[in-house]
Specification:
Layout lengths: L1 H14 L4 H14 L46 H13 L1 H22 L4 E12 L16 E15 L4 H67 L5 H35 L26 H7 L1 H22 L4 E12 L11 E10 L7 H67 L5 H35 L6 H7 L1
Antiparallel strand pairs: 1-2, 2-3, 3-4
Helix pairs in contact: 1-2, 3-5, 4-5, 5-6, 5-8, 5-10, 6-10, 8-9, 9-10
């Protein structure tokens, strides 16, 4: 700091010697020599990063995949229609558009704070008409216009605040970090919206498969009801068998009707995510459910570089760190240089002439001597904000680790459950086949068939519901990994 004070003293000495060239040279000298800032040296907050995820056993280590477009993680599901929906979302999603506008605001603020490092140039022209009374009550301006005069002014001024203590540079650094955080926020919301659309689409496709299952089941139950009615008319079966068959049919038909509003909800959600009104969008049913992808797992340390919400949290820490320097700089004087010159005349005709010129040049040093603790309070506030953003950053990282662990174990448990449920489904199908044969042979009553059919249908729907959960969890895991496992692809998305 002593070296900085010596520079200021020498600069002020030059500024008082009265020559414009020396003044300008001194100002430039001060500007070039001043290189100190009062913000702390930034370091990423310390974190305890695990060597691997606890639930990573059995998962493949992440490797870049050339078959997948950079950042287009949804292509792993191999559905061309889904790819088109995501492209429409990227173009027209209104939530992403809001964050994009916020990012443009942050960029404009960066340009504004960068301009404060340079001199500003102002041009002013004016015409003033003035008068002064003669002091005699017998005279008035209405009777005597000799006291009225016109003044024409034209002035060109230059002002420049010398950034001795790094206040302007720290402000620029803070705004740049905030802009980077805004960019990461935009990437995070885009990833969130993409993830939501993919989840809705996959669940809709599972509902399409459930609808086909129930339609086939309803058709089979209609045949069973007709058969029981025929047997009742022939005196072979009792009315209880007809009532049971009709109950079974109507219950399944009600389940089929219930799927319609569930599908409509997912379809409407997809429309809104693409920036469309639900009335203007329809998604035809498909016979294919996208296959469950094999998702390789990254290292926990790479998660910090990939997830946009973690990147945003760290950049907010950087901005808070720079703001500490801005608040500390308020303890020191502001030095600015100003020069102005122009022409002033009472006659428009002879306005711009050499005898009417004037100029002024000089430095200004401003220091707040007493503020009743305002600056100290501001420093305390910015330091507290920094501590807050550090805690938020660490919590965001912990939340990221927790999400990945949760989805890893969820998919692992779902995978184990899928094996058992598939075995249960195969056993239910075999039991149904045997029971129907026994009923046709007259060995058992129709109630036994109804019970087995209900069990088989329940197992069919359970397998589909579990597949729906596995697909949704896979999307959530990819999003928790930051939108894939290729680090370069994630950076390209941002």
């Amino acid at each position: 700091m002593n070296f900085a004070h010596t520079r200021i003293h020498r600069a002020l000495k030059l500024l008082t010697q009265g020559r414009g060239s020396r003044l300008l040279g001194a100002g430039l000298c001060v500007a070039m020599l001043s290189a100190c800032t009062l913000s702390p040296d930034y370091q990423r907050p310390e974190l305890s990063t695990p060597a691997q995820f606890k639930q990573a056993e059995g998962w493949t280590q992440a490797n870049p995949s050339d078959a997948i477009a950079r950042g287009a993680w949804w292509e792993i599901y191999g559905d061309a229609q889904l790819n088109g929906l995501i492209e429409e979302l990227n173009r027209s999603n209104q939530t992403v558009a809001q964050y994009e506008a916020q990012y443009r605001q942050a960029q404009a603020l960066v340009r504004s704070s960068r301009s404060a490092l340079f001199p500003s140039l102002d041009l002013t022209t004016s015409k003033n008409r003035s008068a002064q009374g003669t002091g005699s009550s017998s005279s008035s301006l209405s009777n005597n216009s000799s006291g009225i005069r016109n003044t024409y002014n034209a002035q060109l001024g230059v002002s420049w605040e010398i950034d001795l203590w790094g206040k302007l540079r720290d402000t620029l650094d803070a705004n740049e970090a905030s802009a980077q955080a805004s960019l990461a926020d935009m990437a995070a919301i885009r990833l969130s919206q993409q993830s939501e659309l993919v989840q809705n689409y996959l669940q809709l496709r599972v509902i399409d498969e459930q609808k086909r299952l129930l339609e086939a089941t309803v058709a089979a139950y209609e045949r069973s009801l007709k058969m029981n009615e025929n047997q009742y008319r022939a005196g072979v079966a009792g009315p209880d068998a007809v009532a049971q068959a009709r109950t079974q049919l109507k219950t399944t038909q009600a389940d089929l009707i219930d799927l319609a509003w569930q599908r409509a909800q997912y379809e409407n959600a997809i429309a809104v995510l693409m920036g469309k009104a639900p009335a203007d969008f329809a998604l035809a049913a498909s016979n294919d459910i996208p296959a469950l992808p094999q998702i390789p797992v990254t290292l926990p340390s790479q998660l910090l570089e990939r997830r946009p919400d973690i990147a945003s949290a760290e950049r907010k820490v950087m901005a808070a760190n720079s703001n500490i320097g801005v608040s500390r700089a308020a303890y020191f004087p502001d030095l600015s240089l100003s020069m102005s010159g122009g022409y002033s005349s009472s006659s428009f005709k002879n306005w711009i002439e050499l005898p009417n010129r004037y100029w002024s040049v000089g430095p200004q040093l401003a220091l707040n001597l007493f503020d009743a603790g305002k600056r100290s309070a501001e420093v305390d506030r910015t330091e507290a904000v920094y501590d807050q953003t550090v805690a938020q950053y660490r919590q965001t990282v912990l939340d990221g680790f927790k999400e990945v662990e949760n989805y890893l174990v969820q998919l692992k448990v779902y995978g184990d459950e899928a094996v058992v449920r598939q075995e249960a489904l195969e056993a239910a199908r075999e039991s149904l086949r045997l029971t129907e044969n026994q009923y046709k042979a007259g060995l058992i009553g129709y109630l036994d068939v109804v019970n087995v059919q209900t069990t088989a249908l329940s197992n069919e729907r359970s397998v589909l519901t579990l597949l729906q959960g596995r697909l949704v969890a896979s999307v959530q895991l990819i999003a928790a990994l930051g939108g894939g496992w290729d680090n370069q692809a994630a950076l390209a998305e941002q």
